Amino acid sequence: MELPYAEPYKIKMVESIKRSTKNQRLKWIIKANYNLFNLSSENVFIDLLTDSGTGAMSDKQWAEMMIGDESYAGSSSFLKLKKVVKKITGYKYFLPTHQGRAAENVLFSALIKEGDIVPGNSHFDTTKGHIEFRKATAVDCTIDEAFDTSIIHPFKGNVDIDKLENVFKQHPKEKIPFVVLTITCNSAGGQPVSIKNIKEVSLLCKQYEIPLYFDAARFAENAYFIKKREKGYEDKTIKQIVKEVFSYGDGMTISAKKDGLVNMGGFIALNNKKVFKQATVFNIMFEGFITYGGMNGRDMGALAVGLNESTEFNYLESRVEQVAYLGQKLVDYGVPVQQPFGGHAIFLDANKFVPTIPREEFRAQALAVELYVVGGIRGVEIGTVLADRDPVTRENRYPELELVRLAIPRRTYTNNHMDYIAASLKNIYDSRNKAKNGYIITDEAPIMRHFTVKFDKI
């Protein structure tokens, strides 16, 4: 008999989560103006809002927390993290920040000007927000296959090279400060980018003398997919693959709350000394001194350990395959999801799930709210609400995909929780034809509205 898979860890501590009734959840979501971000966490049974900073740290990470050096300048925890970052990424220069959007804020302040064009593969919300805040334009060059959830393509996060070159041809290089390549590509469904595609993007960028930067929040998960799916990398270690990936770029920003396995933190890593010196000015202005950048010494120590742990195959197999376990359960129930399954989340296809709700009534948001009411499960809309309004016309932007993301925190929930999630969604899917109406927005921020938006039910 073949032995079943078992997680490469054991549980040392548990945290209680509160059960609630459907009537209670209905009352709570109305009070939250139908915005899942406004819910109190104690009123959520299974929290899949994000995998950012919500995972469980290891015993070795907690041990490192105890010896954190909180010196303002030149702490030993900073030097420890700097050494690990260079070893894993290969980049010479390093600036810590308090999280990923802070890293974007620092680097983009140094590089982006009004009127610039920043191409990439389905920019994430904060990335696009930081670009548009500076009155620049983000241009999506993702392959077309990414926008059909039923197509099985091993690397749906790939950049379409023809689309990218067209952007290069249509604009002078002085107007394109860099290309941003997101690994894995969150907005496309947590989809990976192949090394073959990364090489092609890098070569084209060099040809047109345009820098290439990675949004590397889930770089380790991307490396896992390369090892599993790309010919010639089967026998490479995750760390070898990661090192090669980063060798094709000029630098990176990262939210370390994902593949860094910490609750707070981020950083910028670079090879260009001039860009590094420009970025240090903004790092000091926005974050803190360049050897802590908004992070505690103990968090930098935990991140140094986390980067090593997240780039080990056994950990990644456990993490990615739990996501796939949930995905397969949903497929077996007939629930439409982005396929193949992403590395950090399952993405429900709201266009196929509830086509009876008009797009202008935010069908993905309606599905996310229903999942909370039925099962106490908090996901997040990745659709029209997140796509925000066009900065010029102020009209809603309707992306090709309307998704609900179920982001799985790392080392946190068991497969029994995955079974519960799948059963809740099956019950909703079986009654989907009853869903006729969605929501209207009653209040929204001028940019990145999804965090604080208020709705009324139609």
Automatic annotation (TrEMBL):
SUPFAM superfamilies associated with the record: PLP-dependent transferases
Gene3D superfamilies: Aspartate Aminotransferase, domain 1, Type I PLP-dependent aspartate aminotransferase-like (Major domain)
GO biological process entries: aromatic amino acid metabolic process
Keywords assigned by UniProt, alphabetized: Lyase, Pyridoxal phosphate
InterPro entries (alphabetical): ArAA_b-elim_lyase/Thr_aldolase, Beta-eliminating_lyase, PyrdxlP-dep_Trfase, PyrdxlP-dep_Trfase_major, PyrdxlP-dep_Trfase_small
Keyword Cell cycle: no
Positions carrying N6-(pyridoxal phosphate)lysine: 258
Needed cofactors: pyridoxal 5'-phosphate
Record GO terms (molecular function): carbon-carbon lyase activity
Family: Belongs to the beta-eliminating lyase family.
Protein name: Tyrosine phenol-lyase
Phylogenetic placement of the source organism: Bacteria, Pseudomonadati, Bacteroidota, Flavobacteriia, Flavobacteriales
